Amino acid sequence: MAMVEKRAERILIVDDDPRIRQMVTRYFEDEGFVVHGAADGNGMRKALADHTIDLILLDLVLPQSEDGLALAREVRAGSDVPIVMLTGRDDVLDRIIGLEVGADDYIPKPFHLREVLARVRSILRRRKPAEPAQSHADPGQTLEFDGWRLEIHRRRLLNPDQQEIELTTGEFDMLTVMIRNAGRVLTREMLMDQTRGRQFDAYDRAIDAQIARLRKKIEPNPAQPTFIRSVRGVGYIFTGENNG
User: Fold this and answer.
1) Beta pairing, strands 142-145 & 105-109
2) Response regulatory domain: which residues (predicted)?
């Protein structure tokens, strides 16, 4: 029986500092990744056009007219490729905005390469579809609410018109947790534990930003949500009817 060769995962590092690009490239290549580097938006666009990129490490502060937030917004407008923002240690507002425009995670500088690798692997692992069942479909692999359908094994969301709605890795994981805990109030800490784990540095606005993005995609009126409701001073509750 012929062996199927596994494709090496491709990482794109967008940072104007050649030392950081070289350091990340060398480390990730030693771990079996294919790494492409870009110093600016033009280099990023070329890499995305020429290669199938599995994840982008994107610096927030770039010297050209296009900063990291603008580039993240541009990528997210046409792709759900995971984005990890590289930020300054004290740039809390920038981190929040980065999550709001669709980044999956953030890592403050200076960073340890082992931590970067761990976060990248975690995101890529969560993004991979689960193996299909051998004999019959597992009913737990599909969650349904009010005409919506979340297919866990395919990692996709279908609206009541059977149109696929693109979700980032973080958004998909967040919605999965919310649906599985329908009717239960979840604190921000509980949501962070179940979607990212305690190894990630969490703060309330990170969860709020992700919830806001989800509401824009599934709520008829995001300003008056009917599925994901806020519980003042506590967290959130999913009120859609879980038929899965």
Assistant:
1) unpaired
2) 10-124
Reported as a single tens digit per residue, the pLDDT across 20-79 is 999 999 999 999 999 999 999 999 999 999 999 999 999 988 876 678 888 998 898 878
Q: How many CA atoms are closer than 13 Å to the CA of 91, on its beta-carbon side?
A: 19
Query: What number of residues does the chain have?
Result: 244
| CATH value at residue 44 | 3.40.50.2300
Classify residue 7 by its DSSP letter: P
The total domain count for the chain is 2
Q: Give the C-alpha separation, 234 to 220, whole Å.
A: 24
Distances (CA, A) of 101 to 95, 105, 158, 161: 10, 11, 22, 26
The sheet with strand 156-158 has its strands ordered as 142-145, 148-151, 156-158, 164-165
Cis peptide before 222 (omega within 30 of 0): no
Nearest to 79 by CA among 48, 116, 110, 108: 48
- What are the respective helix, strand and coil percentages of the chain, to the nearest 5? 40, 20, 40
Nearest to 107 by CA among 94, 116, 120, 99: 116
In a domain, 2, yes or no: no
One-letter identity of residue 224: Q
Tell me the three-class secondary structure of 119-144, residue by residue: HHHHHHHHHCCCCCCCCCCCHHHEEE
